[in-house]
Design brief:
It contains four helices and nine strands; from the N terminus they run βααββαββαββββ. It is of the alpha+beta class and 172 residues long. The strands form three sheets. A five-stranded mixed β-sheet has the order 2-4-5-7-6. A two-stranded antiparallel ribbon has the order 1-3. Strands 8-9 form a two-stranded antiparallel ribbon. Strand 6 and strand 7 form a beta hairpin.
Length: 172
């Protein structure tokens, strides 16, 4: 069961960057954040979403070459509804033949990372539980995981002082 509450995307990304600051410094990798200022809150279980972002950042750091960056970003998806969170690294990329199975349990790349291959499965299942989607694109030098989540139902006042539901809010 999820313990949902409206969460500020900026806070979520900043917490992930702080959590991995030491690991990134040890690997000589920077963690950057770019987020649109007008994003709505997302209705999520904060602990689960921290785990989702954490799994993606940990994977990105494991594959990012020294001197590169892991980019955390947030924007509106192409359809304008909800929020898209992205984690991008400049690592070797995921082989095209592995992309269709990358979210399956125990799926691992050739490069040993000390994991058992459950991190991306956990990401997919928690994102789905939140009514969202997760996609990956990859080529040598760039892998990007995009999570699309519905916006939280937030109230806003109209000119007459009535309370209205956010027209962007969607629920699974």
């Amino acid at each position: 069961m999820l313990d949902r509450a409206p969460v500020d995307v900026h806070v979520l990304l900043q917490a992930a960057a702080r959590r991995f600051e030491s690991a990134a410094r040890d690997r000589d990798v920077s963690v950057t954040i770019a987020a649109a200022s007008d994003l709505p809150r997302i209705s999520v279980d904060a602990a689960r979403m921290h785990q989702v972002i954490g799994n993606l950042v940990a994977n990105a750091l494991a594959h990012a070459p020294r001197g590169s960056a892991v980019a955390l970003s947030a924007s509106r998806p192409a359809n304008g509804h909800g929020v898209m969170l992205s984690v991008t690294d400049a690592g070797p990329g995921i082989e095209p033949s592995r992309l269709p199975t990358v979210f399956e349990a125990f799926a691992q790349g050739k490069r040993p990372t000390g994991s058992v291959g459950l991190g991306l499965t956990i990401v997919r299942e928690f994102v789905r539980a939140h009514g969202g989607t997760v996609d990956v694109t990859s080529e040598p030098g760039c892998t990007c995981f995009d999570i699309t989540l519905p916006a939280a139902a937030v109230q806003q006042a109209d000119r007459r002082g009535r309370r209205l539901l956010n027209p962007d809010a969607r629920f699974a």
